[in-house]
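[job 0412] stage=complex_fold ligand=thiamine diphosphate status=START
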Amino acid sequence: MSGQKAPITLPIAKAITAGLRDAMTADDKVMLMGEDIGVLGGVFRVTDGLHAEFGSQRVVDTPLAEAGIVGTAIGLALRGYRPVVEIQFDGFVFPAFNQITTQLAKMHNRTSGRVTMPVVVRIPHGGGIGAVEHHSESPEAYFAHTAGLRILAPSTAQDAYWMTRQAIECEDPVIMLEPKRRYWVKGDVDPDHRPALSPWQAQVVRPGTDATVLAWGPSMPVVRESAETAAADGIDLEVIDARSLAPIDYPTIAASVRKTGRLLIVHEAPVVSGLGAEIAARISEDCFYHLEAPVLRVGGYHLPYPPSRMEHAYLPDLDRVLDGVDRLLEH
Amino acid sequence: MVQLLDADGTRTPHEQLDAVLDEHGLASPERLRGYYRDMVMIRAADLEATSLQRQGQLGLWASALGQEAAQIGAGHAAREQDYLVPTYREHGVAWARGIEPWRLLEMFRGVSHGGWDPNELRTHPYMIVLGSQAPQAVGYAMGLQRDGLVGTGDLSTDTSVLALFGDGASSEGEVSESLTFAASFQAPIVFYTQNNQWAISVPTEVQTRVPLAQRSRGWGIPSARVDGNDVLAVLGTVRTALDAAREGEGPRFVEAVTYRMAAHTTSDDASRYRPKAEEQEWAEKDPILRLRRHLEQLDQIDEDFVARCDEEAHDLAMQLHHHIHGMEDPDPVHMFDHPYAEPHPIVAREREEYLEYAAQFDDDEEEQA
Ligand SMILES: Cc1ncc(C[n+]2csc(CCOP(=O)(O)OP(=O)(O)O)c2C)c(N)n1
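[job 0412] stage=complex_fold status=DONE, emitting structure tokens
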């Protein structure tokens, strides 16, 4: 059957649904767990229809307990299952933080490689949806700091589909950060052709010469837009989608920085002790003699995520990204 | 299940609870009319909040429709000095504590993370991460013990804590841990769960195989199961439990069996998972109707009073409407006001950077003007 179908157009949420469905069809050890993922299809409807299709043994509405969800997923993985768990909102992953960071991340190492943990933790990620407290967090740095975990952050429907499949196939635990603000944005998906680019690699999505702008997930649209706007002013930006946040694909980023001499990193999470700091430090080491300006960051402030009527000022928007570009080019 | 008012409003005798209610005058006709008015008021505010959400004035609303008795009863069961620790749906409890409805709406509108002073109103901020308030409530109760405010024999100062959460939240590890702490230290706390049958789309059966009220018994915490649509049963049961806790008898657990008549929130579509027949069945158990029938049986309510309540409720809804429509967005610089209690160099620097950045746009506007 493969190779017959043409690419299809799907919203990101439905691309993930398709990825889950195809993974479940391909491997009957794949199972889904989470709050409200069954009959309701999840609060974002990402698992819509899968309960009817695969039944309640493979699409499990769990009790309301995140530590329990991830902890039992670890136990199921020990029995050869490949659990994909849904955390309802980013701010609710913290009750499971202990299981993820002290157990899921370390089991393979602890057992000297005898045990693998092919568990996927799906987390709707980021702000900008006008929600109440704890619904708009950017927890990537907490997980990136923990060895043993991998983190993927798709920003397109194609990546959403394929990263879902590749995360499930991966023998390591994978945190999937899904850009919730963009769940209903459509894009082309080609489920029949495995992409040549590995999910653990960054992608240059717009070539340019004057400076490199790096972002991921929910920040990608604003960064792409900033490149279009800058181009109208004669500034040629290279845009990179990091895609994988753990590991980070330094060779691709460094190659770009060697070419442009400048790097701006954009993310929604607070800049303080964020992933941007880690990338800036590494690129400063790797590309010291190529840099014409310090690596700059644009991101959230060192604040709890604000009430939604103030979030527009907290999230990096077009003006703040362009302001960052200006500061970068001043050097 | 404890029930004082049956579906048609007839009061069934209950030796222990009748004594508690009568001793404190909690079931006097005047009080009963007060509860009726409270329930009508809070329902009107709730319905108005739902329509404000539809008008785009609120980001979200979690309706407490149907849970008025469970909330007004529990709110009034607490004494002045008690500390209440709610989740995000306790609008009736908040009303009973004197928290104005627009303070509740600030959070749902997105202008603040909590609209009132917890110390002044002895009511903790609304909590969204499920179950996380339960151990905090126990800690507060442990503080009361240390402060000598438990078991002195003076009911007017002895204090207890009422910790509220839903049937779904009861599955969270933190709720179990808080039961452990409360039992170990015999803290003056009442765990109060409103079992409204659903945690979004998941029925209570997925959270527990036994009635929730039985759970705490494994911890050695006595419990009661009460008809949550019967304001008197809730009031008497929760007051009894709170008084036992304040008298130094240790923690208690109360499960109020009620029903969430609206969807989980304005973002939820209950028709995807909930049978219509079930909704209808519970509509007949409406807590407001039940109290009204009771008052009618006592001949303690008349058309005038009912009309006055409705009018007041309408006025409240209108006030709420105007208040919210007139509410301005906060200047984003206020984000920087409270992340720390003491001066913090990084926040100060980012605040300056923000002001400098925002000022560029003021200049632009001036230039254009
Ligand atoms: C730790 C955590 N996980 C998930 C959620 C998302 N969520 C919000 S309300 C809810 C259902 C809660 O049900 P219940 O505790 O019964 O209270 P109810 O809403 O019915 O009053 C869920 C899953 C959350 N707020 N916190």
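Residues 188 and 245 of chain B are 4 Å apart (CA to CA).
[job 0412] exit 0
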